[in-house]
Amino acid sequence: MRASLIQIAVDEDEPVEARRQRAAALVREQSGSDLVVLPELWTTGAFAFERFAEHAEPLKGPTYETMADAARTAGVWLHAGSLPERDEQGTLYNTSLVFSPSGDLAAAYRKIHRFGFDKGEAVLMGAGDTPVTVALPDTTVGLATCYDLRFPELFRALVDAGAETFVVPAGWPERRRAHWTLLARARAVENQTFVLACGTAGTHAGVPQAGHSIVVDPWGEVVAEAAADEEILTVDIDPGRVAVTREQFPVLKDRVPSLHRPA
């Protein structure tokens, strides 16, 4: 399976619609890939909190329509990163969209863990409450977004739902880049899955972004890693390695689920 992670740069001087069209063009260029991934909140910038409400969209708004067309044109599975979604009641969510090669919506995931510690995203956006997986022809993908990466219980729930590959779009800051790499590898090792983690380049609201999108295999080895600037990271992975790894080293069978249930 060939995956392309589009580590797009977010420049506050670039109009949102211009970046939307540029991202769509980059997706269409990946027609030789099976799966294409964009980062978190690439339309606004993950730290541009004051822009969330201004640029929030209904689920089937302009980003949805543009990305559905790009997926259809390229003939790829597209994880279109996330966007600030506004629901019918006016609540904002950090929502990821996954499209099939026919351009149909295959899954939507509202970010469960909101970053900000009682400010920023944590107070401006509602929280999702449901782990989401989506079945691709070669693997079952579990969806997570940025700050979710710090919460292993979400990834266990995704594994229990059949996930063999985690796709994690992010707007991760440069100052915590070491955590980005460490946590991506940890989630891969403990769950014996592939991790495809796609970050942004550029600077969001004065916060330099880490870039360094990364692909990790089920043993925690880094298959490929981008640098800091805008880049498309393309890698071939064998999803069958997940089953082989779990058979050779069957650590998941020794879990004690009762330890993780409320008393």
TrEMBL record:
UniProt keyword terms in alphabetical order: Hydrolase
The keyword Glycosyltransferase is assigned to this record: no
Positions in coiled-coil regions: none
InterPro entries tied to this protein: C-N_Hydrolase (IPR003010), C-N_Hydrolase_sf (IPR036526), UPF0012_CS (IPR001110)
GO terms of molecular function: hydrolase activity
Domain CN hydrolase: 1-239
Annotated Gene3D superfamilies: Carbon-nitrogen hydrolase
CDD domains: nitrilase_5
Taxonomy, superkingdom: Bacteria
Protein name: Carbon-nitrogen family hydrolase
